[in-house]
Every structure is written in structure tokens, then in C-alpha cells.
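Lecture 7 notes: from sequence to structure.
We start with the chain below.
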Amino acid sequence: MTQQERWTSEHIPDQTGRVFVVTGANSGLGLATTRALARRGGHVVLAVRDEAKGRRAAAQLTAAQPGARLEVRRLDLADLDSVRAFAEKLHADHTRLDVLVNNAGVMAPSRTLSPQGHEVQFATNHLGHFALTGLLLGLLTAGGDPRVVTVSSPNHRKAHLYFDDLTGERRYSPMGYYNQSKLANAVFGHELHRRLTDAGSPVRSLLAHPGYTATGLQSDGPVAPVALLFGRVLRPLAQTPDQGALPQLYAATEPAARGGEFIGPDGRGELRGAPTRVALSAGAADAATGRRLWEVSEQATGVRFGLSPAR
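Predicted C-alpha cells for the same chain:
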């Protein structure tokens, strides 16, 4: 995009009548995404782990924008039972879903396991979103211009998938396993695009990343050294959540966005700036890796999409 064409939230088309699910919607990028979508008329389901925080966020949004169409629903992505319960309730109450924004995440905590025994970053950032997407695919297929937007990170380019030690039992490092989860997001989003395309599905899968954005992700959950570095020392260099949310908003709403695209900031190092198409790593785009992660994720979650492996 040229300087004159730099995309902002003012470019979001009217979203009246469209239904969105945004995970992690009570703070940070999720809250900024919800605010922008609601401002343009979207009906947003705030999928949050803490319902009280979600209700407070919804009340703040409604106070600023009376008439905003918001729902607050509990979703703990680390717990696959919670994911299934959320999906079942959404199916009961809605006949379609237009956009799913897989935004929520945790970053660099001490090694912790999910209720089902998975490393918590892999469980929350990837497996929960994998399962949620599969369980909501029927609603998405019934939507208008339906999209799945999965939020990754530039860190996916320096990450590895530890297929022989996904729980980190032998060699856990907080940032190494955070990076693994972000690579899993990228691999999943791209493999989903391939499978949806091969199936002739109307649903599009896109990836986005926020660059370096000041949110609670860097300060509320990480081990102390990571929280100090990203939550305090480098924080003055970060974008605001409203700025950081622009790539995922572009992917979710821009008519020109295409399935398979990865949207990130256009500034130096993709740390900040306006949305633009950015490169996916060769490892994330590798078809064999995509098939392997898909199979592992199906086994771990018990969720199957009914989509054949991409050729």
C-alpha cells in the first residue's frame, strides 16, 4: 500500500448483521478488535476465560457506544471441555457465524500443563483454537463471506515444532515454547487454507500478527525475565492495542483480503505500522509439516474437520 492508502479502522466496511467471535476479547488486542467491529455495527461474541472481566469490558464498550451488540461467553482455550461447551452453546443460540478471530494467547509462563495434559501455551494458543475452529466450521460455512483469522507472530520464523517433546517435559524454555505455539498458529492457518480451498469451501483462512504491541500478554503471565524485558524495558517502543489490532481487523473485514494471506505491520522489522501482506516462513508453509501438525492436533483434541489433506 502507498502512504496515501495506509489502512486504518476507518476503512472497515459496515458490519451490520454480521456475527463475530473474538477470543480473548476482554483486553489488549481482543478488546481493540471488538471495539472496532462493534463501532461498525458488528455483533461480537466476547469469548473470555473470566466472565466478570468480560462483562466489565462489554459494559465499558457499551457506555462508549450505546447500542453496541455484544455477548459475553466463557471460553477457557486451555481446557478442551470448555471449548466444546462454548461451541455447543453457540450452535444452540446462533444459526451462522461470519468471522472467527483466533486472538487469545498466553506468553512464556513457567511450565504448566492443561487439564488434558498438554503444555499450556501449545494448548491455549494452538490446540484450543484448532478445536474451536473445527467445532464452529458448520456455523462458519453458513455465514456470509466467512473467515477464520488466526493470530501468529514474527517469532514463528525462528521457532521449531518439538514433535518429540510437545509438552516440554525434557527441554522446556518459556520463550522457546511460546515461539513453538506461534509457529503452530501459522502452520495451522496455512494448512486450513489449503484444505478449505481443496474442499471448495466458502470459508477463508487468513493469518495476522500485531507486531510489537503493548498488552498484558508481555507483563501479566510471563516468567520474570521475559516480563521485565517485554513488559517494561522495551514497552516504550510498542504500539497501542488499537494500532496492533489493525492487521487482524484487515484480515477479518477487508473485501480485498484473500484466503492464505498473512497480514502484519508495514514498518521496519514488522514491529509497527499499517497492515500489509507479509511473508510466511518456508517451514510454516511446508505441506508435510502442515499434515503432521494437523494429525497431532486431531489426536490431541478429538476434533475432526471433515476436510481431506491438501494435495
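Points to note: The radius of gyration is 18 Å. The chain has one domain: 13-210+244-301.
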